[in-house]
Amino acid sequence: MNDDMQDLFLDYETFKFRKSRIIHANCFEWLARTHKNSLHSIVTDPPYGVKEYDAHQLEKRSNGIGGMWRIPPSFDGHVRAPLPRFTALDEKDRKRLSVFFTSWSVLVTKALRPGGHVFIATNAFIAALLYEALVKGGLEFRGQIIRVVRTLRGGDRPKNAEKEFQGVSTLPKGCYEPWGLFRKPIPKGMTVGECLRKYETGGIRRLPNGKPFEDLIHSERTPRKERDIADHPSLKPQSFMRQLVYASLPLGKGIIADPFMGAGSTIAAAEAMELCAIGIERYRDYFDMARDAIPRLKAIGTKKTALLVPERSNANLFMDNELFESI
After folding, report:
1. Pick from 42, 8, 40, 4: which is nearest to 198 by CA?
2. Which of 46, 86, 226, 308 is the most buried (most CB within 10 A)?
3. What is the dihedral of CA 153, 270, 284, 15, to 10 degrees?
4. Is 40 exposed, middle or buried (0-12, 13-18, 19+ CB in 10 A)?
5. 234/327 Cα distance (integer angstroms)
6. Phi, psi torsion values for 226, nearest 5 degrees
7. Confidence of residue 174 (pLDDT cuts 50, 70, 90)
């Protein structure tokens, strides 16, 4: 385990894996207590609408009532996972979201090393609002990673008027998930090369074959075997997450943080790639879930998991052992 991680544990309850550690804490409090320039990168999938992860909303989802969660009907013999109702956010909710992520960005900007990158999952409904809030908090926008994946979102006919307007959809069918890419500003007058030498940050890691990491990634839905391990509504596939954690450390070393850990998919991906990571989770149920799920998610695929090369778009090739020989 990276010696630099010791200062990040503080007095919180933690659980140790081979190269990583998870912490049961509120990420705002934890980030506020960390030393300046402690983290090399952040890879995270936050609560999109903030309030869908409030305790009473989680209880509604568990009871199948809905609330902020859309409970899809069963069809084709499959029971679909609940999805947050992003379009249900009113102006008050959006203001709350903006304040939440601006405040979070201020803390992240302090904790990251100069040049450290943030990979943050979002969705088409709130991406612009989220990005504005993160920039206001001190991060600089560096683009988007587009995860190409077909989901069940969108394509619905008008509610209670499906037969009357059979040729109409309320939204286009969702085929991608945007991940915002941000960076803590490099000190004025410092080049990327100088930042890499001093802070081990500033850029994105190239693929093992020497080609650059690309911002368009063909992905898969989270496989059933992974969802059976971790029953979290926003669980991302290991075939995708392992690419992000790899890219987030330009020199292949440092500390990756996931302040909204959930079931631990980021930490599992880092463990599989033999990288150091630290996960923060405020909810006891998800913290306990992650403690059990991380080693099982890490074990999916080969001992050292291959990176998807750009020419091969099938996400399952991410588990191809041959491609990892150069790492």
Report:
1. 40
2. 308
3. 170
4. buried
5. 30
6. -80, -40
7. confident
Please give the backbone phi and psi of residue 307, each rounded to the nearest 5 degrees, phi first: -90, 140
Report whether 319 contacts 306 (CB < 8 A): yes
Phi, psi values for residue 113, rounded to 5°: -70, 150
Farthest-apart Cα atoms in the chain, separation: 64
Dihedral over Cα of 246, 247, 252, 255: its sign: negative
Give pLDDT tens digits for 216-254: 999 999 999 999 999 898 899 999 999 999 999 999 999
Residue at 193: amino acid letter:
G
Closest by Cα among 239, 231, 219 to 301: 239
- Please provide the size of the chain in residues: 327
Which of 180, 42, 192 is CA-nearest to residue 115? 192
Catalogue all structural domains in the chain, each as residue range(s) with its CATH number. Answer: 3-49+90-157+170-324 (3.40.50.150), 51-88 (no CATH)
